[in-house]
Amino acid sequence: MAWNELSRSGAKMDMSGSGYKARRVLDGCALAFWILAISLLVRLGFLWRGQGDLGAGVSSLLAAGGLYLIGHGFRAARLMLLIGDYRVGIKKIALVHFFTAGVSVLLPFKLGEIYRVAELSNLLNDMQKAVLGVWIERAYDIAILCVLLGVVAFGGGPWSNSLGLLLVISTIFVVGTVVVFGILPYNVNELALYMVRRYRSPGSVRVLQGISLFKEFTDAASRMLSRKKTILLLITALIWACETFAIVIVFHHADWNVAAAVAQMLGSISDAASSINMLHVTQTLTALSTLEREYFLVLLSSLLLAAVIAGAKYIPPRIHSTLNGPKTALSGKPNR
């Protein structure tokens, strides 16, 4: 009830003007990020020119970039499955995914996830579903990451501080997700009953409203995951298989085993959270070995190219829609 009321009030806010201003700000951010993505893509082009002879070979790099984009295609499919809204077209969801994935390259410390939530909320006109969608995506990713960390630990792969940091972050996220969605929902009704019987103050009313919001939030998560858990896990496994084989292709002629390749990939994920961004990409890439630099270059280039193309198709229509007047993101008609 509470979330539905918030959604309805959000729609009214859009029509009254303040939500319209928020959409204009988001449009401005999207346009700025798109220009930055083009700028970084150009910079990567100059880095490619300075590479000289390619250690991994052109065919290997093209195959790795293609596999990486196929993995992102699976990510877009996973997002479509999670949203499950007939009013939002497959093309629009795919464009939002590839564009926000490219933006994540531009922002450090995983701040791109916040922007992803904002874009999905704008698309769906539903902040609750946007937050849940991104949270569930990451929960499945973390589950596979834990398996991959086990492959490194028991497969003889090199362990590093980056992997240790990734393990700590993954553990905190997994424990928090289990508590929020697995433990607390079974106790909120008892807590609400206790509050009703024990307290009569105005503050207890606010606590009960918070409990109601939380209960509706977890119930919405259960609905999003209903009959989808297995297929979401399978899609996530395919995503990480693509990303793992992408790095194996680049390093296939080096003295590496799968565990070492996985360790390198996971280490790069942790490093990317703080190093690979618009301001430091040149310094970071030039400090790597030849194969590592080519691996990062092909992944960043392929993702940014996809993001620029997606932005070119996605941003102009939404800016045009915003300039035509304040409207909610979704109407009763399908949004292709």
TrEMBL record:
Membrane topology type: Multi-pass membrane protein
Record localization: Cell membrane
Chief location of this protein within or outside the cell: membrane
Lineage start: Bacteria, Pseudomonadati, Pseudomonadota, Betaproteobacteria, Neisseriales
Assigned keywords, A-Z: Cell membrane, Membrane, Transmembrane, Transmembrane helix
Origin: domain of life: Bacteria
Recorded GO CC terms: plasma membrane
Transmembrane segments: 25-48, 54-71, 139-159, 165-188, 231-251, 295-315
InterPro entries: L-PG_synthase/AglD (IPR022791)
Keyword Glycosyltransferase annotated: no
Protein name (Swiss-Prot/TrEMBL): Flippase-like domain-containing protein
Chaperone in keyword set: no
Species: Silvimonas terrae
